[in-house]
């Protein structure tokens, strides 16, 4: 199974040494993150470092460690499913189009997110952190 990881999951893993962070390293499925959303992680860097008590070097080190486990999906691979993704979720949340497009591009994949907007579409399966725990570790 291929799992597209949403921004909120990566931010959660950066902020605390939590179950989310541990899951990223323990899940034996491929994890993916869309390249166009990398700017969001940079956008929230100050928030994360303040909340987590990290300096810039530790933040960068932790982010690098997480992305040794999470593969970045190049923008070019996502573009072919962009229009279909827009039809599915743009009317709900424009910022989620990239994650639906990434999931469609990968085929047989799910989205891991705590964002309730994904629940309002039916084309791509959504798992929340508690679902991931139940599915893979129960």
Summarize the structure in words.
The chain has one domain: Rossmann fold. It contains nine helices and five strands, in the order βααβαααβαααββα. The model has no long low-confidence stretch (mean pLDDT 95). By secondary structure, it is α/β, with parallel strands linked by helices.
Question: What is this structure, in a nutshell?
Answer:
By secondary structure, the protein is an alpha/beta fold. It is built from nine helices and five strands. The model has no long low-confidence stretch (mean pLDDT 95).
Task: Indicate the topology.
Layout (H helix, E strand, L loop, with lengths): L1 E4 L1 H9 L3 H8 L3 E5 L3 H6 L1 H8 L3 H14 E4 L1 H5 L2 H9 L6 H10 L2 E4 L12 E3 L1 H9 L1
Parallel strand pairs: 1-2, 1-4, 2-3, 4-5
Helix pairs in contact: 1-2, 7-8
